[in-house]
Amino acid sequence: MRKPIIAGNWKMFKTLDESVAFVKELAPQLAPFSSVERVVCPTYIALAAVADVLKDTEIGVGAQSLHWEEQGAYTSQISPTMLVGLAQYVIIGHSECRAYLNETDETVNKKVKAALAHGLKPIIAVGESLAQNEAGETETFVSGQVRAALDGIDATSMENIVMAYEPIWAIGTGKNASGEIANTIISKIRATLADLYGKDVADSVRIQYGGSVKPGNMAEYMSQPDIDGALVGGASLKVDDFTKLIEIAAAEKGA
Ligand code: PEP
Q1: Ligand 1 atom at minimal distance to the Cα of residue 235
Q2: Residue burial 214-229, b: 16+ Cβ < 10 Å; e: rest
Q3: Which atom of ligand 1 is nearest to the CA of 176?
Q4: Ligand 1: distance of its center to the CA of 206 in Å?
Q5: Which residue's CA is the closest to the ligand 1 atom numbered 1?
Q6: Which residues are catalytic?
Q7: Domain 5-252 has what CATH class?
Q8: N or C: which end of the chain has fewer CB within 10 A?
Q9: CA 236: distance to chain centroid?
């Protein structure tokens, strides 16, 4: 059985002090829901302090990206070795990084390999644009992104990888894919994984939905058989909303 995983992507929100205050308030609220894996992904600058607050809890910490090199002349970048000890997870391939920060399928693949080599678990985000969606290209495009991200990754590494289907048109827009549609695309992602690694591996990989997930629509996603959690932006910035999402995931999917 796949343990549900809900990750909050804080994007470029919250100062250091706000981040610390937030997780101090959040941690006790999330403590009861151990049937759900709970992860927060603060900004780089808050990672160490947030990790310190959460060190004796079951709440995991994720970074929002990384560079693939261990060190070097890459101004503004953060390497995998710098994240070790602070984060267990790292989001790779978020559509905002693809759109604004020159993230490509090739850099996603390099980052996935670098993360795995340093014991960090990638949350790999894939998803189509509105134009691709309207042109009926979603399945082909998303499947291509999955194959490119996982190029050269062996089957044994898949236990450390989480996939996230995030249709670009649904991120931060208030528009969301219906639970049924999200489940259909996620089942196609699983079929791509089965093609690459076999059915047993595909059935063991957790695949999240992301895109305007809120307490009001969470149950619709969590009741779908192929959706194993959510990658959440806006609703992860409020203690009550994020707690509610975890509570719903535990009720729908928890053991
Ligand atoms: C995201 O940042 O990955 C995301 C899905 O954002 P939102 O929940 O705000 O749409």
Answers
A1: 8
A2: ebebbebbbebebbbb
A3: 10
A4: 18
A5: 233
A6: 94, 166
A7: alpha beta
A8: N
A9: 12
